[in-house]
Amino acid sequence: MKLSKEVLKIDAEAVKERIIRFIRSYVKKCGAKGIVIGLSGGVDSSTAAALSVLALGSNRVQGLIMPEKETYNELDIKHAEILANKFGMKVDYIDITPIVKAFYKTVPVYDANDRVSNGNIKVRTRMICLYYYANRFNMLVCGTTDKSEYMIGYYTKWGDGGVDIEPISDLYKTQVRQLALHIGVPKEIVEKPSSPRLWPGHKAEDEIGLSYEVLDLILYGFEHFMTAEEVASQLNLPLEVVLAVKRRWLINEHKRRMAPAPKLFYRTAGADFRLPILIS
Fold it and tell me: CB-side exposure of 241: number of CA atoms within 13 Å?
């Protein structure tokens, strides 16, 4: 297999239709009235939101814009509003700053210098807000994690990873961008550098240490059973860089699974005792 940008090209129309059918079918199976989704102004949330509207109609998709003081970015808010207006979505605004600050003041071991732990509090606070809406209005929380970030665990467990449905998690970031342009997500959103906004100046590619164009090809190689040596050779990368990506993929498997339980008796719910989703 030759690793090049060509292997990541998608039939955007076919992918769009498959995801739309998936969303529509799953929402119906779960007996939910619609989707609630956090709008960050980035390409992933914008694409997932647009697909949800195409699947269900704008009246069944609720967007939440949830800024907080430390990482407030006016352009992100503007982009979220542009996306919502273009696709006719309902949007509510929740300033999570007071909630986050209350948490910091309450926890005895709070450390202002631990930006990862503190950033994760912001993400999990947004998850709580999303689930409040989901509970209140019988909706499903829509995830916005792409395959690149899902594979390396670049998301917060029970934060942006705490969702009911993940419509774009089988698309690498570069493929999400292709699909986004195809379904009408504004180009300025698609081409903007990705940022989880866990702290000021936070950029995804800076933290990951690779561009998504390179990361996606490394992960694509692993997905297709290539060795780290083969991937490094084809992409002209140091072997240690490729091995570091592989390690992130492997050590973050716990994020992609429900909590494990010891096997004690005949059938264990969620493991060898799994049931189809049925609505009584």
Answer: 16
Calpha distance 170→81 (Å, rounded): 26
Whole-angstrom CA distances from 216 to 6, 18, 225, 272 are: 12, 22, 14, 33
Domains of the chain: 5-256 (3.40.50.620)
Q: What is the pLDDT along the chain (280 residues), one digit of tens a residue?
A: 899 999 999 999 999 999 999 999 999 999 999 999 999 999 999 999 999 999 999 999 999 999 999 999 999 999 999 999 999 999 999 999 999 999 999 999 999 999 999 999 999 999 999 999 999 999 999 999 999 999 999 999 999 999 999 999 999 999 999 999 999 999 999 999 888 878 888 888 888 889 999 999 999 999 999 999 999 999 999 999 999 999 999 999 999 988 888 889 888 887 788 778 766 4
Report the distance separating Cα 219 and Cα 191, nearest Å: 21
**H or E element: which one contains 34?**
strand 34-38
For residue 62, the SS3 value is strand
DSSP for 100-111?
A: HHHHHHH-TT--
Tell me how far CA of residue 16 lies from CA of 28, 33, 196, in angstroms.
18, 21, 25
**262 Cβ contact partners less than 8 Å away, ≥ 6 residues apart:** none
Report DSSP state, residue 279. Answer: -
Q: Please work out, in degrees rounded to the nearest 5, the angle formed at the alpha carbon of residue 93 by the alpha carbons of 88 and 94.
A: 150
